[in-house]
Amino acid sequence: MTAPPQESAPTQTGDRVFSGISRAAGLVILAALAGVFIFLSIEGIPGLFQDEGAYKGNGNFLGYVDTLLFGTVLSATIAVLVAVPLAFGIALVVSHYAPTWIAGPVASIIDLLAAVPSVVFGLWGINVFAPKMVPIYVWLEENLGFLPFFKAPVNPVGTTILTAGLVLAIMILPIITAISREVFNQTPVLHEEAALALGATRWEMIRLAVFPYARSGMVSAVMLGLGRALGETMAVAMVLSGAGGISFNLIGTSNPTSIAANIASQYKENTPATLHILIATGLVLFIVTFLVNFAARWIVARNERKLTR
């Protein structure tokens, strides 16, 4: 009986080299994250204990950062609520409904949106999109003004938290769409054909075969888009006229700004106390983003465990 053939030395060497490079790349990423956290901690902790005057009338750091954190989360939430259904719909059309001659160009156009710089979105948002939204905001106030989200007075130039959230939605749309499209395309063809052979409609096949298989990838796509929305700087700083406190009014004149946009607009003051405070807010944003990604990994791992049972 002949012994099974052994792997060749070049193959073994190549595997070891690839494994070493991959491990080194992972360690470099961890070291970079640790370095960022250490820098933010060292430079930001003094920002927690500055004089009251340095917090621009908010008393302390907590009073200063809570409005910024609220604006960050609110704008990112609006972006995700708008972008996710559109992204999943576009990804399904491209992967399962549209013919190839339509799906290819549509996918390319969506992917090209990811290459547009954020400052371009900001210029478009403040000069074109925001003025076009004013009549819509007036209509919302006249017909839905009894809701706390659409109370008067309406922002006359359209630079509201809702406008910023919609611009962010357009920015994160290609990220969520591209990842979702790839995940949908990886669904085993035999699963789809089996569902169709049993009499399922196209939508039933997607709901019963595609979505369960792609659930973890869909969650990852949403969380990546949310991370982009949380950390976006220039587009929000240019579109949003943030000068108010915590408010759920999406179309009013008093809007909370985001942490990243506040850092970009206030960094020019360049006083030691201001720098420490801004870096401390950056540390808060870093922690929030880390927790979002950690939650995403936990959800993905939980879904994968359910699928393997």
Automatic annotation (TrEMBL):
InterPro entries per the UniProt record, alphabetical: MetI-like, MetI-like_sf, Phosphate_PstC, Phosphate_Transport_Permease
Topology of the protein relative to the lipid bilayer: Multi-pass membrane protein
Pfam families: BPD_transp_1
Free-text function comment from the UniProt entry: Part of the binding-protein-dependent transport system for phosphate; probably responsible for the translocation of the substrate across the membrane.
Protein name: Phosphate transport system permease protein
Predominant subcellular localization, coarse grouping: membrane
Domain ABC transmembrane type-1 residues, every copy: 69-296
Record GO biological process: phosphate ion transport
Family: Belongs to the binding-protein-dependent transport system permease family. CysTW subfamily.
One GO MF term: phosphate transmembrane transporter activity
Transmembrane segments: 24-49, 69-94, 106-130, 157-179, 233-253, 273-300
Organism from which the protein derives: Nocardioides currus
Location in or out of the cell: Cell membrane
Gene Ontology CC annotations of this record: plasma membrane
Keywords, ordered alphabetically: Cell membrane, Membrane, Phosphate transport, Transmembrane, Transmembrane helix, Transport
